[in-house]
Amino acid sequence: MWMNMRDFMLRTETRKAQNTFETLTRLWRYFRSYWSVLVAVAVLVVSTTYMQVVTPDLLGQAVDCYLTPATATAFSGNASFPIPNAATRPPANCWLGAPGPQATTADYLAGLSRLVLLLVGLFLASSVLTGFQFYLMNTAGFRVLRNIRVDIFRHIHRLSLRYFSEHEAGEVMSRTTNDADTIQQALGFPLVSVVQGILLIVWIAASMLEKSWAYALISLVTVPFMFVATSWFSNQARKAYRNVRVQVGNVNANLQERISSVRESQAFGREAENIAQFNQSNAASRDASIRAVAFTSALAPTLEALGYVSMAIVAGVGGWFLLQGQGLFGTTMTLGLIVAFIAYTQRFNQPIAQISVMWTNIQSAIAGAERIFGLLDTEPDLQDKPNAREMPAIKGRVAFENVDAEYKAGERVLCDVNLVAEPGQTVAIVGPTGAGKTTIANLIPRFYDVSSGAVNVDGIDVRDVTAASLRRQIAIVLQDPFLFSDTIMANIRYGQPDATDEQVIAAAKLARADAFVERLPDKYDTLLGERGSGLSQGQRQLLSIARAALADPRILILDEATSSVDTRTERLIQKALVDLLRGRTSFVIAHRLSTIRNADQVLVLDDGQIIERGKHEELLQRRGFYYDLYMSQFRRDLDFSENGGTPVTAMAPAE
Fold it and tell me: Of 491, 632, 508, 650, which Cα lies nearest the Cα of 570?
């Protein structure tokens, strides 16, 4: 079952239409906030690219302006240099000036030394400026990474509960961690390298064509093959890296689920099965990564081989024309020109290989960005209306009017439900598992929307007000309360952040939690573990009740609040609930008999419909569904206030 879900996710992910341009455009919206940094990087890119373009030309000048004439002078033994033909004549574009006809070997060496110093200066300057590029672009990349993660986390909090019931936490976490990291790693300096590589290719090609268009075309004869190889390997690598992102998400989801269920796996002896399932997902991630690396690794040597072929062609063709003393379509062939074109070809091929390698990383980042934007584009199925207003102070009247509800289209969970709870009333909701009790509780704070009908609070449809303003006035105590890895004080204060320490302690006393908290070494400053580990189930429940009490809600929902605690703790919780329920509109789901007997009305649900309603005694006298339920599940329940806490029998597990 677990693997079937992931197979579906994988098929869905790889079927999605991919739009590289759109993804890069959306990423640009994040980077443009740092336009000043990008402008500085652009200036540095142009500067360093220029330095790389002029270097081959300077190497050619070193040969034609200084080395060739100096060598001829040294061999002639004369102070003057005889120029036999135009092929050995120093070109007119010697940047540092060519020595005159009467120049000695020392004059040529001096000029060569100045040219070498210029080359060294260019190399050093290029290295320093490249370092600045690296620093500035990665600084912008880390800032963009932070902004993307903030947007993801903010959007996650906008999504409704339905989304999280359909997507595993580990898979969502992977979007925030692995995919976001991939974007930063690829779209920082690697992106600059790709842009600079493209600029360098264009600039070098233009320089080569300017010097000799025919020789340039011969030098670039292997370029089409390079682009074909780059395109094919990059496309394959992109698909592979997209698969890697999916498989890494699967590993995270599997790991999170298996760690959370360690107790259950040990209790049922399923450790071996869990390990096997994790090995399976881990192996899939391994295979996907190997496939991606295979395409990436094969591209570089392919381009390198084509680069060597190109250099051989340049040297061979140029050498042949030079030895023959012939020009090439009007271009005088010199040794310096051949050296320059060999250097041009080498520098031309380097960015192609660099772009191909970097581009596969960028493709991986684009695949991760597509997954992130897919999450950010997920519209919450529950949103505030454009004209939604703030919910005024609630008095506590709750009314369901012909309510139908469904989690999946066509599968109704509630059918034509009508109920009214007046301010301050306690409404008990009972029924077998799956009857729809928790669904009623979820509709009041608008965790889900009704399919038809309306849920009104104080005569206002909950869909007409902002969800946040509604939920601020409602508190929920669940069967399995969630506590954060924080202090007890912070956990109780969670529902009322501006509460004072005295108010927190007062709420803990009302919930009967103060007694066990005071026995802890650090009392209210005790740091809890994950989900409140270190405390018993009952102690976590008491803290949850204290948190609800501190929020001082007008509407209170108790969903199986005592079904998982021992008798002694339940007695404490019952006493706390007496104070907590007083004066509030309360909905008590499948609670103990002591609370149900004191409820102002009892709603009996079966198959999504209210089949009986009334007070406890009235329903017993009718000898209907509630009577049968009572006789089978409640008859040994006794009111703690009258019988001193005799052991009880739970009604039913939470839905």
Answer: 650
Q: What is the rounded average pLDDT of the residues 170-178?
A: 72
490 vs 385, 505, 546, CA distance in Å?
33, 11, 12
Tokens of 170: 């580990």
Q: How many CB atoms lie within 10 A of CB 617?
A: 9
The two beta strands, 585-589 and 555-559, are parallel
Separation in Å, CA 173 to CA 17, 170, 264, 415: 23, 5, 23, 36
Selection from 461, 459, 464, 448 nearest residue 404 by Cα: 448
Beta partners for residue 404, in sequence order: 452
Cβ contacts of 100 within 8 Å, gap of 6 or more:
none
Q: Mind listing the pLDDT tens digit for each residue in 579-594?
A: 677 778 888 886 556 5
Domains and CATH numbers, the chain: 33-376 (1.20.1560.10), 389-473+558-569+583-655 (3.40.50.300), 481-552 (3.40.50.300)
pLDDT for residue 128: 92
Q: Which residues 6+ apart lie within 8 Å of 345 measured at CB?
A: 219, 307, 310, 311, 314
Report whether 249 contacts 5 (CB < 8 A). Answer: no
Distance CA 214, CA 457 (A): 83
CA distance 408 to 166: 11
How many other β-carbons are positioned within 10 Å of the β-carbon of residue 613? 16
CA distances from 456 to 470, 581, 587, 597 (A): 11, 21, 15, 26
Q: CB–CB of 483/538 below 8 Å? A: no
At 622, list the tokens: 């009718």
pLDDT in the model for residue 641: 39
Task: End-to-end CA distance of the chain: give it in Å, rounded.
Answer: 22
The Cα–Cα gap between 157 and 583 comes to 32
Output the CA–CA distances (angstroms, integers) from residue 445 to 338, 456, 469, 548, 587, in the order listed.
Answer: 79, 11, 10, 14, 12
Any bridge partners for residue 426, and if so which?
A: 586
Bridge partners for 399 per DSSP: 420, 456
Distance CA 206, CA 204 (A): 5
- pLDDT the model gives residue 135: 87
What's at 14, amino acid-wise?
T
CA dihedral 431, 437, 438, 439 (to 10 degrees): 140
Q: Residue 635 to residues 44, 300, 590, 630, 638: CA-CA distances in angstroms?
A: 83, 78, 14, 6, 8
**Is the pLDDT at 124 greater than 90, yes or no?**
yes
Give CA–CA dist 399/131, Å, rounded. Answer: 67
Cα separation, 597 vs 403, whole angstroms: 26
Per-residue pLDDT reduced to its tens digit, 282-305: 888 887 888 877 877 777 788 888
pLDDT of residue 117: 93
Q: Do 303 and 322 form a contact (C-beta atoms < 8 A)?
A: no
Reduce the DSSP state of residue 628 to 3 states and report it.
Answer: helix
User: What mean pLDDT is reported for the chain?
Assistant: 78
CA 364/CA 383 separation, integer angstroms: 33
Output the CA–CA distances (angstroms, integers) from residue 278 to 5, 128, 256, 432, in the order listed. Answer: 14, 47, 11, 36
Q: What is the pLDDT of residues 523-543, one digit of tens each?
A: 888 888 776 676 777 788 888
The answer to whether 48 and 123 are in contact (CB under 8 A) is no
* Secondary element (H or E) of residue 318: helix 271-324
Given a cut of 70, whether residue 168 has pLDDT beyond it is no
Neighbours of 277 (CB within 10 A): 16
pLDDT digits (tens, 9 = 90+) for 534-582: 677 778 888 888 888 888 888 888 876 655 555 666 676 677 677 677 7
